[in-house]
User: Fold this.
Amino acid sequence: MSETGGKNLKIYYSIKEVAAMFDVKESLLRYWETQFPHLKPKTTGNKIRQYTDKDIEQIKLIYNLVKVRGFKIASARKMLNENRDGSDQHARIIDSLIIVRDELKALKAQLDGLS
Assistant:
């Protein structure tokens, strides 16, 4: 049995899988493709979208700017074009904070159970 080092072996994700990851509708992902030039999933001959990990990282940035921080589409697009590194770093920080929040909620639930 070979060790994968914790890496995901899946290369492509369907639009349905990606929409479920972010709890958004598939139509929103298709719309974002028209609005953000960096988001270009591979399409098969049958027009089926295949998202890579890179595409998912791009969606994570867009989701953070539009859904979490409340940016308008034009502002989010401008932010991504002008300050790519800053946007990436902010998204990573938000992800870390969400993980910490969830861990704190779990600890609180455990402590409440002791009472």
About this structure: The first strand starts at residue 42 and ends at 43. The radius of gyration is 17 Å. Strands lie at 42-43, 49-50.
